[in-house]
Amino acid sequence: MSKRYNNLKSYFGKMKNGILIYLTVIVLGVSFFVMTLNNVFTETYDIERFSLASETIRSPITIENEQETERKTRETVQGVADRYKISDEVSQEQLSYIREIFDAISILEKKSNEQEKENSNVVVPITNQMKIEQLKQILSENITSNISDSTFLALINVHPEDRTTGSEIFLNAVEETLGNGVRTENIQTAISNVNEAIKYNTTINESLKEPLMDLTKFAIVENSFFDVEKTSEARKEAASSVEPVMIRAGEVIVREGQTITNEIYEKLNLVGLLDKERNVFPIVGLVLLIVVLCGMIVYEMKLLDKQRDLDKSKIISIISIPFINISLMKIVSLFMTEENHLFLIVPAATSALLTKLLINDRVAFVLSAINAIFGSIIFNGEIAGSLNTEAGIYFFISQLAAIYLLVNVKDRTAILKTGFGITVVNLLIVLIFIFLSFEKYSLLDLVLHSSLAIASALLSAVLTIGLLPFFETGLGILSDIKLLQLSNPTQPLLKKILTEAPGTYHHSVMVANLSETACEAIGANGLLARVGAYYHDIGKTIKPQYFIENQLSIRNPHDFIEPKESADVIIRHPYDGAELLRKHKIPKEIIDITMQHHGTSLLKFFYYKEKESNPDAEESRFRYPGPKPQTKEAAIVCICDSVEAAVRALKDPTEEKIEEIVAAIIKDKTTDGQLDDSPITLRELNQIQRTICETLKGIFHSRIQYPTKEAN
After folding, report:
1. For position 268, what pLDDT does the model report?
2. How far, in Å, are 7, 99, 220, 314, 705 from residue 194 at the CA level?
3. pLDDT tens for each residue of 228-268
4. Taking a C-beta distance cutoff of 8 angstroms, is the pair 645, 659 a contact?
5. Which string of DSSP letters, residue by residue, matches 476-496?
6. CA-to-CA distance for 522 and 678, rounded, in angstroms?
7. Full 3-state SS string of 92-158
8. Which residue, among 77, 82, 79, 78, has the nearest Cα to 183 in the 3D structure?
9. Rounded distance between C-alpha atoms, residue 640 and residue 597, angstroms
10. Average of pLDDT values for 610-615?
11. Which of 222, 207, 216 is nearest to 147 (CA)?
12. Which of 107, 403, 513, 662 is most buried, with most CB under 10 Å away?
């Protein structure tokens, strides 16, 4: 009947925990939604064209302005000049014509001089017309058809040396002009440039300048022609080099009082500030994110519940710690601007420190990730669709540092030491951000950011120390720091045991050593078992002389009373102890160990003694009322309590005797059902047995027998 009752109690307890888990997580999820809604929700506007803007409006997203990009591309392509190809064939042909003219004139002059020498006695006059006709006979048709006779005549009548000098200058000017390319639209300009060069050249004979300028009209022709392929390639290259015109998140689209032009109106429409339906999607995304993250919290709570390490206090802690942390982020974000980096001052590590101290490392890690994700949303400058990755990375690494650096917690100074470690990590993160950034930071910025990071670490430590008592006292959560305080020998109740029941004190210390070692061997809370063992027999201080370990130099009081009375005194000590612990406001976990460390075991000595005089004695009259051990720690204290008393009673404890008695006690506890309500497995019991034996062998090892004086 009792077993069925315990099963029903356990079932309803789990169901109650499950309901509480879901209710609190739903409340937390709603809180997250309210605090982050304005970070993803974008206000839409009912604006008309050419009206005045009532406020400054910024873009909520980063998006390409395709229409503006297309316009910019079109302008760039139109600005590309046509590509032309200079024809070297045309240039060389024109230059060859000019050389042909001057060479022909030189040849005619040479022939004319030879004829004059041969016919020196006969005078045969040669007219200008004859000279021109002779010249035309040897020149190309293209030359003769385009150059006038007067030009030929002027060139012929120039002194040969002047003509040679002038021809060289003229050819150089024509070659340079043709080399630069002559197009139809600039042919007159090219002719004028050559003529200017001839006209103002002092080396050329004045009589030669005019015929040379006439010759320019023939020499300068179009030699630069439109190149379709090169022009097309140039335009394509120009188009590809155009950067997309982007509207950046946070960019001011229109300022207060500014007229809403067509261009501004199109930008507002493009970024979705005129589309009310578009606002629904970020909200859906936020809800899905919150569901996923809250699901992670539920999973961790269920895991703790399965391990029988979850109660109402821990549920409230797991919910309230991230709520406090994210609330602090939200408050700081209200004062953040584009110029400052106030997220650096948020004491995010407080959440990790409190969770590790009150729950465990795993839950602390999960909550750290959740805090970092929400931090990246909260500090996004209220720009929907964007995340502040710097803030998220900073929060996550700072919290990880807190989890890994908080070790060997003996008192609250360990939290301060961890705070200094977090300071170093925070400063490193700030330096990493600065070195990875393209922006140039001044020394003042570096000092300011570093100061904020230092303040964050120190605030985290101070807030943790300040908030921890509220969780420990207000919610009754037992942290390692609280356990260490309770284990201090100066604690009033421990002093009471030491002074009023010294034998019990020594027994408790031995049980504590065995219990801690056994718990650590199976992954249970060794510190809790140690402290629970210190207080488990506090009830013996009510009547210390009735317990054998305190009966020094006195007769056993049980020799003078009935077995039933003796049993009543002995059975009362766990519950007297629990009452005493409650009176001194000792945590529930310690009280539970005190009440459960004997379970419903039988006082065999007094029971069988009573049976000698009363065969009808009821066994239940000599059993502890219970409850049986509910946790691994309570079960181990239960085993170690019996083991220590039994081994201490041995006159000559050997390794064999120790192993036998430990095995017998564990078997007896198991057979009697004392461990049925605890989550200990058979495999763990074997490990506990081995660990207790090894510890006891170390305590009761063989000692050297020193010789006495008589032996000498």
Report:
1. 78
2. 115, 17, 9, 99, 129
3. 888 889 889 888 888 888 877 777 888 888 888 888 888 87
4. no
5. ----HHHHHHHT-TTSHHHHH
6. 14
7. HHHHHHHHHHHHHHHHHHHHHHHHHHHCCCCCCCCCHHHHHHHHHHHCCHHHHCCCCHHHHHHHHHC
8. 82
9. 9
10. 84
11. 216
12. 662
Token readout for 110 is 């040479």
Q: Tokens standing for 501? A: 């029941």
Residues 6 or more apart from 699 whose CB is under 8 A from it? 510
| Amino acid at residue number 319 | I
Beta strand spans in 14-65 (E): 57-58, 63-64
pLDDT score for 131: 79
User: Could you tell me how far CA 442 lies from the centroid of its own chain?
Assistant: 25
Structure tokens at 159: 């002194």
Q: Do residues 452 and 341 lie in contact, with contact meaning Cβ atoms separated by under 8 Å? A: yes
Q: Which residues, at least 6 apart from 328, have a Cβ–Cβ distance to it below 8 Å?
A: 346, 347, 350
Is the full-model pTM beyond 0.85?
no
So what's the pLDDT on residue 105?
Answer: 86
**pLDDT given at position 5:** 42
* Token couple for 275: 């589309």
User: How far is Cα 372 from Cα 396, in angstroms, rounded to an integer?
Assistant: 5
R_g over Cα of the chain? 52
- Summarised one tens digit per residue, pLDDT across range 344-387 is 999 999 999 999 988 889 999 999 999 999 999 999 877 766 78
Please return the burial class of 7, using the count of CB atoms within 10 Å of its CB with bins 0-12, 13-18 and 19+: exposed
Continuous segment of H or E residues that includes residue 225: strand 224-226
Task: Give dist(CA 534, CA 518) in Å, integer.
Answer: 15
